[in-house]
Amino acid sequence: MEIGKGQMKIFYTANHQLHSPEFEVFNGEQVPHSEIPSRVENILATLREEEYELTPVESVTNEQELLNILTTIHDPNYISWLQSTHPTEAIYPSVFNFLNQQLLHGHLSIQWGNFCTDMFTPLLPNTWTVALTTAQTMYAAGQEILNGQPNVTVIGRPPGHHAGRSRIGGYCYLNNAAIAAQLLSEKGTVAILDVDYHHGNGTQDIFYDRADVLTCSIHADPRRKFPYFAGLENETGVRAGKKSNKNFPLAAEITNEQYQPVLEEAIHWISSHKPNFLIISLGLDTHESDPIADFKLTTEYYQKMARTLQQLNLPTLVVLEGGYSTEAIGRNMVSFLKGFS
Ligand code: SP5
Ligand code: ZN
Q: Among 149, 230, 254, 279, which is disulfide-ready with 144 (CB 3.0 to 4.6 Å)?
């Protein structure tokens, strides 16, 4: 099936620049943050040059439905805390609450430690507003798919796939892919394929005990790279979700030629479960130029990746996750989208 530009709908978040973390903390040191507004700005500029039509999502118009979805996929305590907390400066966690099941109070940096797993993911004054707009964008994209649009792409920030049910991290706050998956799961089985360089641990966590949303991730081996504590092959799901999760951890410096057969195996696994909808968590941090990752995929390869994904012949929602080369990210996104046209 050939999909022209006209049949491809691209949404973006208009206010994403309001969430702009300055630094992350690694081993006690402040280093410049990687998940910055110029990532999405570079993509939007490149798409405009290529004359793609872009639809902005300016405001949250379905707040109640959104909150219903968000409190299904995330811990309601986390969502209500995020919604009702209004920090006036960047909050980094100081203590992580692994000691008890109670929610700890005190300074916001203590409260953030109830829900956060790392020091890469600060809570900023506008994080909730921006994350909720991206959530709205995912909701709109899911509705487009339900209305028969064959391919919808969402260019938004912050990313989502490291946000789990009640523990978030890795630059992510609300799990964007999971929002659309939850919406689509009311009408059929959903498969989420995560091709970000990093394991989609949050997405895996949210759907780990469910059969109606399959989760599959191709990523750097977590024994070597973030998120470190999830992403191995033997994580296959529990209870109703048994065998509904599949992980492909890979070595460093993977080339196009080495990636392609893994992608085909992932597609084979997905198609054997006969899903009705496909969601792609598209991280462009697998590119050879990425400053925080070490795969060797080329710009041209993303076109082949998209063509390969079309073998599944499913309504497909693509959502941006990582990708930190602010030079190459736009070209890589265009290459991917060309694979659909
Ligand atoms: C969505 C996504 O791709 N999240 C990835 C989070 C990975 N964080 C690991 C942080 C270690 C790298 N720090 C180097 C920062 C240089 N600016
Ligand atoms: Zn990533």
A: 149
Q: What is the DSSP string of 34-103?
A: SS-HHHHHHHHHHHHHTT--EEEE-S-S-HHHHHHHHHHHS-HHHHHHHHH---SS-B--SS---S-SSP
| pLDDT, position 1 | 42
Distance of CA 243 to the CA centre of its chain: 22
Instruction: Write down the residue that tokens 């507004």 correspond to.
Output: 37
Angle at 267 between CA 263 and CA 269, to 5 degrees: 115
**Residue 198 C-alpha to ligand 2 middle, in angstroms?**
4
Mutate to test the pocket of ligand 1, among 171, 174, 285, 320 (most ligand atoms within 8 A of CB): 171
Cβ(207)–Cβ(164) below 8 Å: no
Question: For residue range 102-116, what is the model confidence (pLDDT) as tens digits?
Answer: 999 999 999 999 999
What are the residues facing 272 on neighbouring strands? none
Which residues, listed in sequence order, are joined to residue 91 by a DSSP beta bridge?
123
Residue with CA nearest ligand 1 atom 6? 170
Pocket lining: 173 vs ligand 1, CB cutoff 6 Å: no
How many residues make up the chain in this entry?
341
Per-residue CA distances from 307 to 199, 299, 302, 313 (Å) = 22, 14, 9, 10
Question: Nearest residue CA, atom 4 of ligand 1?
Answer: 170
| φ/ψ of residue 288, rounded to 5 | -60, -25
The CA distance from 331 to 42, in Å, is: 9
